Amino acid sequence: MGLMIPFLWFFGVHGSTIIGGIMDPILTANTLDNQAILDVGKELTLGNGGHIVTKQFLDQFMTVTGAGMTIGIVIFCVFFAKSAKNKEIGRISSVPALFNINEPVLFGFPVTLNPMLVIPFMAMPTISGLILYFCQYIGIIPLFGGWQTALL
Q: Could you identify which of 16, 52, 77, 103 might form a hypothetical disulfide with 81, taking C-beta atoms 3.0 to 4.6 angstroms apart as the criterion?
């Protein structure tokens, strides 16, 4: 997932939608399994049948601020870019990036079809996912249960 979503975005295809159609049922089932473990009063661990890779794993640690975790380039451009064009793209992209919308970055710089920017664009979510997986596997970070809120 960490490589495929940015890989598809590199070609201008909405990677999250394409991969989501395949992976969302699996990730949602894993999240529901984790919530079921919590619902019966057990501790959510791998030993109790918990899953590491869930929807929250993808959303909060691999696609935060959009595919490719582009918040770094946005912050850099807002504060340190020498080019007026890049500074403006960073400024315009900053608010949407907070809501996981990074199309201004992908098509404004552009990241799409740019071989220099595709390396960090693909590497960051992969590195983040591997670190999180390892930390959850050895127990530094707890597994994710459901995050649903109560009905109003």
A: 77
Task: Please give the Cα distance from 39 to 66 (Å, whole number).
Answer: 31
The pTM of this model reads 0.85
Helix (H) or strand (E) holding 85: helix 84-98
Q: What is the pLDDT of residues 57-105, one digit of tens each?
A: 998 899 888 888 999 999 999 999 999 999 999 999 999 998 989 999 9
Give 86-111 as a DSSP string: HHHHHHHHHHHHHTT--HHHHHHTT-
Whole domain around residue 43: which residue ranges?
A: 4-69+105-138
Number of domains in the chain: 1
- Residue 63 resides in a domain: yes
C-alpha closest to that of 111 among 141, 80, 146, 70: 70
Q: What is the pLDDT of residues 117-137, one digit of tens each?
A: 999 999 999 999 999 999 999
Distance CA 49, CA 30 (A): 10
| Of 74, 128, 79, nearest in space to 98 by CA | 74
